[in-house]
C-alpha cells in the first residue's frame, strides 16, 4: 500500500491542516480510483481510522482510495466563531485531492463515511450535495443536533456549541440532517445512505430517531444495529459492511472476511 501522511494548506481554513491518504498498491500510471472521504469523531484526528480499523486491507480489497482529513471539534460546520470547516471538507478538499492523487472525478466513484461527529459530517455533505456523492455511510452518528445538550459537561461545553452554531444555537436547524434530507428529497440525484449503530451506544437514540424519520423520506436508506458501544470494534465492522454494501471486492476468494 502507498500512503501520504502530512500537512496541506487550506485557504478555506486559512491555516495548515493534517491529512492522511491511503492508496492501493495496484496503482498504474493512468488509473483513477473510487474515493472514500473518511471522517473522524469529536475527540479524534486524522490518525484514528488508520490506527483503529482495517482501512488498509479494505483499500486493497476494494481498490479504493481513502482520504482521511482533520477538522478538530468543528462538527464539520462553517463555524459561527471559527473556521469554515464544511466548505473545506465538501468543496476545497475534494478539489485539492483530485489534483494531487489518482482519484476518479465521477460522482459514481465518490463516497463519504464517518463515525460519531464524522457520521454527522458525512450525512451533511451527502444530503447537501447529492450531485457530488453517490453514497454515504454514518457509524454511530451524532446526527440529532438538538440532543447534543444532553451530553454537555461530559462531551462538550455549551460555549463550544455556541462557537459552532451561534450564541442562541440558531444555526442548528439549517444544519439538521432531517431538514437537509427533506431538501435533498426534492432533487433528482439522491445519495445511497447506510447507517450503523451499537445498541449499547450512549447516543443510540439519535440513530433510531434518524431511522424512524427516514422511513417517510424518498432517499435510499439502510440501517443496521447490533450489540456494541461507541468504539472501534463496532466502527471497524461497520466500515467492512459499508464497503460490502457499496463496492465489489477485487479478489473475493483470497480476501479474509472478519465479519
From TrEMBL:
Q: Which InterPro entries match?
A: AB_hydrolase_fold, Esterase-like, Mycobacterial_A85_antigen
What does the record list as coiled-coil region(s)?
none
Q: Which domain of life is it from?
A: Bacteria
Report the Pfam families cross-referenced here: Esterase
- Tell me a Gene Ontology molecular-function term this record carries: acyltransferase activity, transferring groups other than amino-acyl groups
Name-wise, this protein is Esterase
